[in-house]
Amino acid sequence: MAEIRRYDIISDTHGYLTPELLDALQGADVIVHAGDICSPSDFRTLQLIAPVQACLGNNDYASDYPPTVRARKVFYGSGLKWQVSHYRERLNLSLCDVAICGHTHTPFLERDEWTGTLVMNPGSPTAPRRSRPSMGRILCEEGRVIDAQIITLR
């Protein structure tokens, strides 16, 4: 039986990681951050919990982060191709299985009707707009998503 891996999805933390968020991230296999980290020390804190796959947001500076953190991030995990961009319009849904975006601070989760790609904006755990503080969680087995959800914090 294939191993189930947990991907915890966050965005728009803007230099603040709440204790509740840090607790919720414990046990993640991978943390995906869709930009506006706004704090190299927060990035390092996240790396202590799990490997981090991240892109830059409009409030991030490339020089503050490792060279692997750029405007758009593409990586492979659990037999799936992932794409992460702060802006939804910069995602190419025909080239990935899972697409993650941020920027709006408002969560959504959907399957693209044309490509079948799972698209998620986890909202913001620290500065939400038109919603409660939130994050996302995606569970994967080799080659497939078995569960995806938006988690409301506090």
UniProtKB/TrEMBL annotation:
Molecular function in Gene Ontology: hydrolase activity; metal ion binding
InterPro entries, per database record: Calcineurin-like_PHP_lpxH (IPR024654), Metallo-depent_PP-like (IPR029052), Phosphodiesterase_MJ0936/Vps29 (IPR000979)
Domain annotation Calcineurin-like phosphoesterase: ranges: 9-138
Keyword Metal-binding: yes
UniProt keyword terms in alphabetical order: Metal-binding
Enzyme Commission numbers on file: 3.1.4.-
Names of required cofactors: a divalent metal cation
Transcription is among the record's keywords: no
Entry similarity comment: Belongs to the metallophosphoesterase superfamily. YfcE family.
Name recorded for this polypeptide: Phosphoesterase
